[in-house]
């Protein structure tokens, strides 16, 4: 059709209804495609994954927490000015050979190049309610990088504590869809990276992560920006 347009064979009056029909056909084809072939699923398509994601998070917490350790005195000293005492006391740090994807991640779909829209396998750590799991090869206690990683994951633990497990998971998936599966832009990740950067540049300037989370997620809502 582009060649006909460029050659001027079709008049402007003829082009408009043709374009409307083509647009409608494209929309119908997009709906008819299998989910795995579409670039991004809708929020409605992903809602059934929310309870599965909650169950997975709870299962991972149950699996890893018994092998976890409490925060060390050095870690507590660095993190005390930023996090509630109760959260630091409850936190456990466990290690694993690698971070693996949950089985339902395929439901999120793939990009045009075949890669997953959401892939956690490259992560250094992951938070499960009150437990942090870190990849063994990236565990370097005592370093600034290590404390920064813990800070990031403890922001997520604070989000879990504030929003509840279901609220955290639901809001995370909603934001994931809203930002087009752009991982650093997901509301919960964006906040964790922002506060981690603030801590990294000014480690002696205390602030309340809990207050920041409550301000960012009022009444458990997932912000759209």
What does this structure look like?
By secondary structure, this protein is mainly α. The protein has 2 domains: 1-32, no CATH class; 40-220, no CATH class. It is 52% helix and 6% strand. The protein is built from 10 helices and 3 strands, in the order ααααααβββαααα. The protein has helices at residues 2-7, 12-32, 43-46, 49-64, 73-79, 85-90, 144-163, 165-178, 187-201, 209-216, and strands at 92-96, 125-128, 131-135. It has a 3-stranded mixed beta sheet. A hairpin with a 2-residue loop joins strand 2 and strand 3. Mean pLDDT is 83; it is low at 1-12 and 14-38.
Give a quick set of tags describing it:
225 residues, mainly alpha, 2 domains, three-stranded mixed beta sheet, 10 helices, 3 strands, 52% helix
In short:
With 225 residues, the chain is mainly alpha-helical.
The total beta strand count reads 3
Question: Which regions have little confidence, pLDDT < 50, spanning 5+ residues?
Answer: 1-12, 14-38
What is the tally of helical segments? 10
- Helicity level: 40-55%
Straight-line distance between termini = 39 Å
- Our Rg estimate from Cα atoms comes to 22 Å
Strand adjacency order, main sheet: 1-3-2
Give the rounded overall mean pLDDT. 83
Please report which band the strand proportion falls in: under 5%, 5-15%, 15-25%, 25-35%, 35-45% or over 45%: 5-15%
Helices and strands: which structural class? mainly alpha
Q: Biggest sheet: strands, sense, closure?
A: 3 strands, mixed
> What is the 3D form?
globular
How are the SSEs ordered, and which strands pair?
Elements: H1 2-7, H2 12-32, H3 43-46, H4 49-64, H5 73-79, H6 85-90, E1 92-96, E2 125-128, E3 131-135, H7 144-163, H8 165-178, H9 187-201, H10 209-216
Parallel strand pairs: 1-3
Antiparallel strand pairs: 2-3
Helix pairs in contact: 4-8, 7-8, 7-9, 7-10
């Amino acid at each position: 059709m582009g060649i006909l347009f460029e050659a001027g064979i079709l008049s402007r009056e003829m082009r408009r209804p043709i374009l409307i029909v083509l647009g409608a056909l494209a929309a119908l084809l997009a709906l008819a495609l299998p989910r795995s072939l579409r670039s991004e699923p809708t929020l409605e398509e992903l809602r059934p994954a929310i309870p599965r994601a909650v169950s997975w998070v709870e299962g991972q917490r149950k699996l890893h927490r018994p092998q976890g350790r409490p925060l060390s005195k050095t870690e507590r000293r660095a993190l005390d000015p930023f996090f509630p005492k109760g959260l630091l006391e409850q936190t456990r740090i466990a290690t694993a050979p690698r971070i693996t994807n949950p089985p339902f991640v395929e439901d999120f779909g793939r990009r045009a190049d075949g890669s997953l829209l959401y892939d956690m396998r490259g992560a250094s750590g992951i938070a499960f309610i009150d437990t942090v799991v870190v990849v063994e090869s990236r565990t370097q206690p005592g370093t600034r990088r290590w404390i920064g990683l813990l800070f990031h994951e403890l922001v997520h633990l604070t989000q879990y504590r504030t929003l509840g497990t279901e609220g955290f998971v639901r809001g995370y998936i909603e934001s994931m869809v809203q930002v087009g599966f752009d991982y650093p832009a997901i509301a919960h990740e964006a906040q964790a990276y922002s506060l981690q950067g603030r801590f990294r540049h000014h480690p002696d300037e205390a602030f309340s992560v809990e207050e920041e989370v409550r301000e960012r997620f009022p009444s458990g809502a997932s912000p759209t920006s």
